[in-house]
Amino acid sequence: MRPEQLLTPTPSGVCCKPAKFHIDPTRKVDRALITHAHSDHARAGHKHVLATRETLDIMRLRYGENFAGSVQEVGYGETLNLDSVKVTFHPAGHVLGSAQIAVEANGCRIVASGDYKDAADPTCAPFELVPCDVFISEATFGLPVFRHPDASEEIRKLLQSVTLFPERAHLVGAYSLGKAQRVIALIREAGYEKPVYIHGALEKITAYYEECGIPLGPIELVKGAKKAELAGQIVVCPPSSMTDLWSRRFSDPVTCFASGWMRVRARARQGQIHLPLVISDHADWDGLTNTIAATGAGEVWVTHGQEDAIVHWAKARGLKARPLAIVGYGDEESEDDLDTAGETGA
Amino acid sequence: MNRFAELLDRIAYEPGRNNKIKLIADYFRTTPDPSRGYALAAFTGALSFKYAKPALLRGLISDRVDPELFALSYDYVGDLSETIALLWPAKKIKGRNDVPTLSEIVETLGALGKLELPGQLVRWLDALDERGRWALLKLVTGGMRIGVSARLAKTAAAALGPHDVTEVELAWPGLEPPYEKLFAWLEGEGEAPESNNPVLFRPVMLAHAIEASDFGKLDPKEFVAEWKWDGIRMQAASGLDKSGKRATRLYSRTGEEITKSFPDLLSAFQHDGVLDGELLILREGRVQSFNVLQQRLNRKAVSSKLLQEFPAHIRAYDLLSEDGEDLRHLPFLERRKRLGKFVKNLKDSRVDLSPMVSFGSWDELAGARADPAQHGAGQDADAVEGVMIKRGDSVYQPGRPKGQWWKWKRDPKVIDAVLMYAQRGHGKRSSFYSDYTFGVWTNGDEGEQLVPVGKAYFGFTDEELQQIDRFVRRHTVNKFGPVREIVHEPNEGLVFEVAFEGLARSSRHKSGVAMRFPRISRLRWDKPPKEADRIEALERLLEGDPAAPLKRKRRA
Fold first, then answer.
1. Closest among B345, B56, B263, B40 to B172, alpha carbons compared
2. Which residues of A touch B13 (CB under 8 A)?
3. CA A145 to CA B76: how far, in whole Å?
4. What is the ipTM metric for this complex?
């Protein structure tokens, strides 16, 4: 079987025709397999959704009880037989509940990895390497200029700044699902014991992480706090809130942004960031290229990000490589609009 | 080096002056000699070694990275040093001990032969992390533009102990990197480093802007007045160095040395003294407008053609020291007498005395201010920015002491312009749209349209800022990155009254004119945009400008 017969790329995601399902479709379908709960991959309104328990729970938190007609939990390592096709979920190391989906039929195995990272993360299961014939990879940071440093080193810089500017609140912009909780967990690992303040948009998901047994220490909401109480505190919030009306309650804050984009100075300057923290939930260039090579895949499909460089790299190594041009992945900024609605100015 | 790189990284993003000082002071406190001294030297421009050329860096990276990947990366990042710093193949070795310190790098660069440079750079790039490589490349290419002035770095050094930056300035001339004695003294462990340099900068005395309500409280008999010239406030210090040779230094009002930009003035000083004055351009005895002076400023190379076309001149206001005697404690009128003799004694047409403006009452002075041409300024009246009012008995004190000196500027020019774009501010204003681009009407390709003529980010009260911010958020029609386009239709939009000091032709602005010192003087909520001014109103203001014909000739 040719790989394209098993999984067919379309502009709204990859589609398995023999077993009639889509992976992370960007339009409503009858049967969707979802890699993780970020809104560009996990949309509401499918008839039937298969995903990990955590992904389903987070979708429910965000979209409400009726986000899908029916759902089915799939555990890591569990193999499902959908018609003639075998499907297995493996940890992707991206956020809590994130999975790579291995699809196999007639001796051909394709791994749709969704978003993934091979770096350590105390808030989710580590990435598992799955050997395959075709590897579908993201390329968010698919340029060799992106090499993420050790996240704990970035957190050290944050805490050092908190010590140096004890009167200024440190606003840490972090995507509300995954990054925010990872940043808090890393702050705890570094020994910081004071309460961490969070924007209301992070409340539900952060509480859910704790329910799942990920300790995040004392958390306070910004909403109820007095202005004087916020001086000198670490405040985690969605990136978009750092420049909106919400941020006016802090006097002379240090604006920090935890993102792989912060590696490039122009990006940090554009965002008027004072302290860029290069912390990413995506694989960096070394992570992408090492992973592609290690899967042993002879062919790589690139879903979104900096496709050109990864495709060039793969071809230079004698691999078959193509960009998939799926519309609508990689928009993490709008991801936050889901949770921030209603918080602005509150 | 990694600590220095981290500091550079941080201050490059930090807009607040006090926060920058705190960051630099913290670095000085926690970094040992001699590295911290070399950092201070890097900030004050006191390092000297041969810089590496971009071609050398390109060669190093092309040996290591696929050209296609380099091209894609450079295109994305947009800065050569940064691209190379990020792309350089990392050699992660646990517990490596060959990470160079800033002092090793500076000392090695000073002693290195040209042929050894590439190999040495490679060894350092291998040993440093991304930030360290970036800082190294900025250092070796001479491209450190990070928004830290020498004065700011010295202020941070002073913050280490009980000393004031003025004391650091006094001690500074004659000191050499890595300033170990200076740091020891600042931290309270040693004597002040001796300065034997007679040509130090003396911190400048400044004036308050006078308000109408102030005059009632001031007795005109206690004050004297002189013209406020529209040039650059500067200080000239001349004396003999250790070997008995004459040394002359020119400083800006903030203490930055500008001697190299004005070599044509140096020979005018053949006597020991420190003079406070205004830097001007004079052609055939006539003072030229600020726009002409501006063409002489910020030039990398001072060519003989530039010296000839833009002859520099000093109009003297004050004398701070003469023959080693500090005059600053004397009353102004006494210093003024000494100044008159000093200037006469120089016998040089490039330095003259700023004339006094006589008056008996504030009304008389108002008359002089309104018409300088008829009150002594004659043909130079265009270069008069207003009058300075000084207490006859004022001693020369650094900073802006209360009640001593006042400036009374001529009424600014104003136009009504329409808000077109807004951008968020920095620091405390970072959540407010506080930087505004405004335009006036012109007859363009699409009929009547607005053309941007300037940008302003002050002049309004905090309350007005909130009102404008609200307007911006509610009337955005487009977003380009951090910039918002605001509705600007004939009947919808916000009109600003914009005040400004002068106008020059400019090929860099779409409108063809550039404003000097524009600020929002009033919000005209009452005025519909269609009643705002037209570009012709600005062009009329240009006509009296002596710079205009000259600039046209230069461009042809």
1. B40
2. 268-269, 273-276
3. 9
4. 0.91
